[in-house]
Design a protein that fits this description.
The protein is α/β, with parallel strands linked by helices. It is built from five helices and five strands. It has a five-stranded mixed β-sheet. Helix 4 crosses helix 5.
Length: 148
């Protein structure tokens, strides 16, 4: 379970009906970048997945999956899919809370284009959490031992 889920459970410990109503309105969108692909997942705060998409599932192959254009088109496709699923679940988008989490290696162009694609489709976002790894160049090399 996530930290948000635990926090909401503790804060609404004495109101079980309100807790269920609130937890059904909190959604997480996870954008994960790997070496060769970009994955977008959309799920409830308790971890139940609703929608997922990747650059490969949209139709990009090989090196093209790692381009900013692929990230943007994948995000647009994903946002349309999410909107249709939420309308089938009768969830009001205006009264819900959306969290976007960014994971993976720090390739800012992919994340930037994915967020632009979500913004083009007017995907609601209340909070963005950045959990990308940032390389620092490694540790210092050892000195070569002296040979006398």
């Amino acid at each position: 379970m996530s930290l948000y889920f635990e926090f909401l459970q503790k804060s609404l410990k004495f109101f079980p009906k309100r807790r269920l109503l609130l937890l059904n309105k909190v959604f997480i969108c996870r954008i994960r970048s790997t070496k060769n692909n970009l994955f977008l997942n959309f799920f409830f705060i308790n971890g139940r997945s609703l929608v997922s998409a990747s650059a490969g599932s949209v139709g990009f192959n090989g090196k093209k999956k790692r381009t900013p254009i692929a990230a943007k088109k994948t995000a647009i496709f994903f946002a349309r899919k999410v909107r249709s699923v939420l309308s089938n679940l009768n969830v009001k988008i205006d009264s819900s809370f959306f969290i976007i989490k960014l994971y993976g290696k720090s390739s800012s162009s992919l994340f930037k284009e994915a967020l632009n694609g979500l913004r083009i489709e007017k995907f609601p976002c209340n909070l963005i959490i950045d959990k990308k790894t940032v390389s620092h160049g490694g540790t210092r090399r050892l000195k070569k031992p002296r040979r006398v």
